[in-house]
Amino acid sequence: MLAAREVAIDINPIDGAYHPLYLHGFTKWPTVTYEWFLVQWKDYAAFIRTHGQQAIYETNRRGWSTVRKQLASEQSVEAIKSRIRAWLRIEGEPDKSVD
């Protein structure tokens, strides 16, 4: 597993793809941010805002999805861990009703 606390966001495509945080409108300029962190396992990744109010994860179609229910609203640490494991396909798949 890879975790990154310092996330560099470029506004130019790299290998034909734009950075997901740029695509979702979180920045208009190239920057390094500490407001987001990255978690990655094998072929899947997720970006989570440090306060838990925003998150995006990589879909099975290789696109990116914004979650519907934010991690900050979860009632337990186990629920947060379970959702992140599902986003990374470590354990299950994302739940379409909240993710």
Characteristics:
two-stranded antiparallel ribbon; 99 residues; single chain; five-stranded antiparallel sheet; alpha+beta
Architecture overview:
With 99 residues, the chain is of the alpha+beta class. It has one domain (2-87). The protein has two helices and seven strands, in the order ββαβββββα. It has a five-stranded antiparallel β-sheet with strand order 1-4-5-6-7, with no helix packed on it. The longest helix has 11 residues, at 77-87. It is globular. The protein starts with a strand and ends in a 12-residue tail after the last helix. The model has no long low-confidence stretch (mean pLDDT 94).
As residue ranges, the low-confidence spans are none
Number of helices: 2
Helix content percent band: 10-25%
- Please compute the radius of gyration using only Cα atoms: 13 Å
Total domain units: 1
Large-scale geometry: globular
Number of strands: 7
